[in-house]
Structure formats: structure tokens, C-alpha cells
Amino acid sequence: MNEDDLILPPPPAPPPPCATCGKPEDLCLCAALVPERTRLQLLVLMHPQEQDVELGTARLLTGQIENSVLKIGLSWPSLSKALGRQVDAKRWGVLFMGSKEEVAKVPRGGIAVFGRKDVAPDSDLILSDLEGIVLIDGTWAQAKTLWWRNAWMLKLRRIVIHPDFRSAYGNVRKEPRKESVSTLEAGAFVYGKLEGDPGLQERLLKPFDELLSRWRKHKRRPVKAGLPPPV
């Protein structure tokens, strides 16, 4: 036996990630996502350097909201340009992580829409007037960059939430504030409230529970970077 006989062949290359969600094969849930038909439309703006492919939740949300739009970039001239069609920005809201004082004005388990002059917590006005919701996906610093680089967001109503639950991330990802939750959890909470469907939030969250279960099963390491609050 010579030395060449002792050389082991290289291990097989891992399967390529999913072309849709970018997650590795064992974490991909695209085939299990069931689109929900909702009255409110959804636009998710993702920072191009958002790199938490394994535990990111934005695509889990857009994959479940029918006709939703996900755009990756830093800036767009207007809401209409980001969506690819003409809309009235005043009839859209952006999920905004308000100050502690603003959140304190919202009952726990509720939401409020901050307009230019008024605050309308959980009212019929919200249900009848809003056409769609914008969510920003990225780290806290990345979210702030997207906010300030897209001045048209100031024309949108600011939706502030006060979740009555803690993020399912647990110790997997750290959060800057106790009311901070993932993009999917924030979106599911808002849609569950505004669509008038008591079971919608739970249905939207099921893939997230499965993602975390698979992630823990394979004993991946916790993410050290802090989770950004939704804005």
C-alpha cells in the first residue's frame, strides 16, 4: 500500500441553497408556504447586506401573503416606484418601531396608526382607510439607513405595535427591547389585527416555528448579532 492509497476523497459538496429563499436545503420551507388572500397589500424592503440567511423571516412572510412584493436595495424614488405601480402613499402605513413613550401609548396587544395630527388605536378608520403596509427588513443600523434614504416614508402613516408576546427567537437572537420581534412576527401581528381574521396570525407564524425547530435540531450556533426592532 502506498501513500496515495491513504488519501481519502473530499467530502461531497453540500446541496445548493434554495433559489427562492436562499436558505440551505434542510431549512427551506418554500414548498410548505400557503399564500393567504388579504385585503391589505404588503411591501417588504430588505437591506442588501441583510445576511442572516438561515434565520431571516422576510421571505417566510412574503411567501404567505398573496401578491406581496419584496425589494432588495437601499433607496427608491417613491412608494409607487418600489411597488412598480401607481398608489396613494397616504393610504399606506409603514411598520415603525416607535419610541418607548409612543409604544407606552398603545395598549399591550394592540396597534396604533400615527398620522400627521392624530393617533387612531384599533379603530374602524384603520381598517377602511389603509390599502397596504411597508415593512423594513435588516439589522437596526440597516433599517435606519433605509428609513433615512427613503424620505417618501414620511408620507406614510406610522404603524406602532405593542406585542403581547415575546419573540420566538428566545436566546437564538438577542433583541434590543422586550417588545422587539422578528419581521415575520411583526407582520403576522399586524395582519392578524387588521384583517379581521383571528386565526391569521397563528397561521402565518407556523413556518417560523418549524424553521426554529429545524435550526435547533441541527444544533446550529446562536446568532450573536442583535435582532433589529421592526420599523
TrEMBL record:
It comes from the Bacteria. Keywords: Plasmid, S-adenosyl-L-methionine, Transferase, tRNA processing. The keyword Transferase applies. Belongs to the TDD superfamily. DTWD2 family. It is an enzyme of class 2 (transferase). This is tRNA-uridine aminocarboxypropyltransferase. SMART domains: DTW (SM01144). Residues 14-220 form the DTW domain. GO terms for molecular function: tRNA-uridine aminocarboxypropyltransferase activity. One of its GO terms (biological process) is tRNA processing. InterPro entries: DTW, DTWD2/TAPT. Its EC number is 2.5.1.25.
